[in-house]
């Protein structure tokens, strides 16, 4: 019976010993904590045995002595008084405390490095981020310019844009953007990690129209209020995206239209480039008319913005439609989007809209 009990005890003991060996070999946090407590306690006992009451007489004093010893600060205000105490400190307390302190620093630095490496390789989690832009897809050159412009237009309190790509192994612009690596652009899990629920907008440009369409539709589904801009090679695919979700704004190649317009109206292509450029003056911007105010005539807003902000009103967007060069008597109501040309983006809340009433009459 006794032999049977011993046979049952041995596997459990070996199992515990094996786990302890693995923990110490891999230097887990549990192993480091155990070694720290054990060394702290044994050092206290040994110093107490040899009569170092100046170090062990008060717990707070001993912890202070152990801390300055482990961190190699060594103020010199506390030290062993006797020969035995000095030998114990030299051959046990100091080497062990420093080794444990070094192990803690190494694990902390390794952990921080691991988190940074994961973020660089696209394994980061930005699901709690709010008010940022997300870019889906990477094309060398074009995407880099797009992300640089988005980063350059960020407000001081706006978070970095997040790039989602399946073709990159690590963040290509770590000083300007964050990065999420995905198996496919339409992957809901990757979009959640990119912070789709709190993002202010999404720009989609896949390797082909099928990938762009899928990613745009999934983005619009995951966030019912987000604005999605998608670039398509073919107009028919763009029309399909707009029919499926009215909040998807599609862009197709403008080259044929620009060629015709520039041929008939010289300089038109330059005008288009200036209006769309984020790095030059006289750029087209948009803003919402603040909630809770009375409607204002288009003509009054046109003259008022010119006088007070040196900006030129060019159109109004409402119900998904944009109307340029509106009649002067057309009302602009709260929630409508105003499109204007200005050297800088305007703050709708800082404009005195009531002072514009009657400006165009």
Describe this structure in words.
This is Voltage-gated ion channel superfamily protein. This protein is of the alpha/beta class and 361 residues long. The chain folds into 3 domains: 2-120, Helix Hairpins, CATH 1.10.287.70; 133-253, NAD(P)-binding Rossmann-like Domain (Rossmann fold), CATH 3.40.50.720; 267-356, Regulator of K+ conductance, C-terminal domain (Alpha-Beta Plaits), CATH 3.30.70.1450. It has 12 helices and 12 strands. The strands form 3 sheets. Strands 3-2-1-4-5-6 form a 6-stranded parallel β-sheet. Mean pLDDT is 85; it is low at 1-8.
Level-1 CATH class name of the largest domain: Alpha Beta
Total helical elements = 12
| Series of secondary-structure elements, N-terminal to C-terminal | HHHHHEHEEHEHEHEHHEEHEEEE
Characterize the largest beta sheet: strand count, sense, and whether it forms a barrel: 6 strands, parallel
CATH second-level architecture of the largest domain: 3-Layer(aba) Sandwich
Q: How is the quaternary structure best described?
A: single chain
Number of domains: 3
Percent helix, as a range, is: 40-55%
Low-confidence stretches: 1-8
Domain RCK N-terminal: 184-246
Domain Potassium channel: 37-108
GO cellular component, one term: plasma membrane
Main location: membrane
């Amino acid at each position: 019976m006794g032999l049977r009990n011993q046979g049952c005890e041995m596997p459990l003991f070996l199992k515990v010993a094996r786990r302890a060996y693995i923990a110490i070999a891999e230097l887990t946090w549990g192993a480091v904590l155990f070694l720290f407590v054990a060394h702290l306690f044994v050092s206290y006992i040994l110093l107490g045995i040899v009569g170092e009451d100046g170090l062990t007489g008060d717990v707070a004093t001993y912890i202070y002595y152990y801390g300055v010893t482990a961190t190699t600060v060594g103020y010199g205000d506390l030290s062993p008084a006797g020969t035995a105490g000095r030998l114990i400190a030299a051959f046990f307390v100091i080497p062990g405390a420093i080794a444990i302190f070094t192990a803690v620093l190494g694990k902390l630095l390794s952990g921080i490095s691991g988190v940074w490496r994961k973020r660089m390789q696209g394994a980061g989690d930005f699901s709690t981020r709010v008010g940022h832009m997300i870019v889906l897809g990477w094309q060398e050159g074009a995407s880099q310019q797009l992300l640089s412009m988005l980063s350059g237009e960020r407000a001081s309190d706006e978070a970095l844009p997040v790039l989602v790509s399946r073709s990159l192994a690590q963040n290509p612009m770590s000083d300007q953007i964050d990065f999420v690596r995905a198996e496919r652009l339409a992957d809901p899990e990757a979009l959640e990690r990119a912070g789709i629920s709190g993002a202010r907008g999404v720009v989609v440009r896949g390797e082909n129209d099928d990938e762009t369409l899928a990613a745009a539709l999934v983005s619009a589904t995951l966030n019912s209020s987000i604005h999605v801009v998608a670039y398509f090679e073919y107009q028919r695919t763009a029309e399909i995206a707009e029919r499926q979700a009215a909040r998807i704004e599609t862009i197709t190649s403008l080259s044929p239209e620009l060629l015709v317009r520039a041929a008939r109206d010289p300089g038109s292509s330059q005008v288009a480039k200036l209006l769309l450029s984020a790095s030059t003056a006289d750029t087209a911007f948009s803003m919402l008319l603040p909630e809770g105010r009375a409607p204002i005539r288009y003509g009054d807003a046109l003259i008022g913005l010119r006088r007070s902000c040196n900006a030129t009103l060019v159109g109004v967007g409402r119900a998904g439609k944009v109307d340029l060069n509106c009649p002067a008597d057309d009302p602009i109501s709260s929630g409508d989007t105003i499109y204007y040309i200005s050297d800088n983006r305007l703050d709708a809340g800082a404009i005195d809209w009531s002072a514009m009433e009657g400006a165009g009459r």
